[in-house]
Design goal:
about 150 residues, 2 domains, 3-stranded antiparallel beta sheet, two-stranded parallel sheet, 6 helices
C-alpha cells in the first residue's frame, strides 16, 4: 500500500530516465514524473524523443517533479574525489588536479585501469547512485518499485 502523497514508479524506468537526463549537459535532456500517475515523460533539446500523447487531466492535476541530473545529486567530481579519498588516498592530489582541466574523467579512468581499480570504481559509483536516487525519491514522495515496464502504477 502506498502512503498518501506518494506516487509509485517503475525503478527501471526511473533509472533509465535518470541516465537519460545525466547523459547530456544539465538542461539538455530532461524527464518529469507525474505526481498523480507516476508516468515519466522524456524531453530533449538535441534529440527527438518519442513520447506518448499529451498528458491527461489527471497528470496535470497532480503536478510534476523533474528527474535530477547526476550533478544535482553530487554524483560528479565530488563522488570521484570521495572514492579516491577512501580507496586511493595517495592519488588524491593527482586526481583533484585532473579536474582542473578538460578530459578529467578519461584521465581518471586511465589511472583506475593502471591501478586495477576500475571495477571497484564502477561498483562504488553504482551504489552511490542508487542511494542518492532513492533518497531523492523519498524527499519527493516517490516510491520506486520493481515491476515490468509498461504495467502502469
Amino acid at each position: 500500500m502506498t502512503a498518501p502523497g506518494t506516487v509509485v514508479v517503475n525503478r527501471d524506468d526511473l533509472e533509465a530516465a535518470f541516465e537519460f537526463v545525466s547523459a547530456g549537459a544539465p538542461s539538455e535532456n530532461s524527464a518529469t514524473i507525474s505526481l498523480a500517475t507516476g508516468k515519466i515523460r522524456w524531453h530533449s533539446t538535441s534529440v527527438d524523443v518519442e513520447d506518448d500523447d499529451d498528458p491527461d487531466e489527471a497528470e496535470d492535476a497532480g503536478g510534476y517533479v523533474s528527474v535530477p541530473h547526476k550533478k544535482d545529486l553530487g554524483l560528479g567530481r565530488s563522488l570521484v574525489l570521495r572514492f579516491v579519498d577512501q580507496e586511493m588516498p595517495r592519488d588524491y592530489d593527482a586526481v583533484a588536479d585532473f579536474f582542473r582541466r578538460r578530459g578529467a574523467y578519461s584521465r581518471f579512468k586511465n589511472l583506475l585501469q593502471t591501478r586495477r581499480m576500475l571495477e571497484r570504481w564502477y561498483e562504488f559509483e553504482q551504489r552511490a547512485t542508487n542511494e542518492a536516487l532513492l533518497a531523492w525519491c523519498e524527499e519527493n514522495g516517490i516510491r520506486a518499485v520493481d515491476k515490468p515496464s509498461g504495467t502502469g502504477c
